[in-house]
Sequence to fold (141 residues):
Amino acid sequence: MRCLQSRLDFPLVTNQIELHPLQMDSLHDGTLDFAQEMKMNPMIWSPLAGGRLMNLEMGSSDARIGRVQAVLKKIANELGPKVTLDQVVFSWLLAHPSKPVVILGTNKIDRVVQATGSFSISLTNEQWFSIWEASMGKEVP
Fold:
């Protein structure tokens, strides 16, 4: 991004990145730090890991997905009876200080309407980091 920006005579306004609880490289490699430095809001694609986070069968056969799903269910239950797992994931993404824009990979209006519920959900720091810990399989350093 920095190299590309150096060769343009107009400002870049976003970077489209894959980010979800199973793909968190941008949290660690400086990508989101750079977005904040440049005051650009990253666009997040595949926020539900291509549906893997919602597929309960995958959770039973993949330990990492199972850990993340268990924490998402726990948080959804803490937040209320109508809160869904995808809303928890979207809220987790939206809580990042880079103010990401989540791209939904659906054209089903009911899924879009359901996703808007994420804007009214606020995760505690403990909840946010519990998702990070479940994915990494270890406590926050």
The chain is about 50% helix and 5% strand. The chain has one domain: 2-49+58-136. The chain has a mean pLDDT of 94. Residues 63-79 form the longest helix (17 residues).
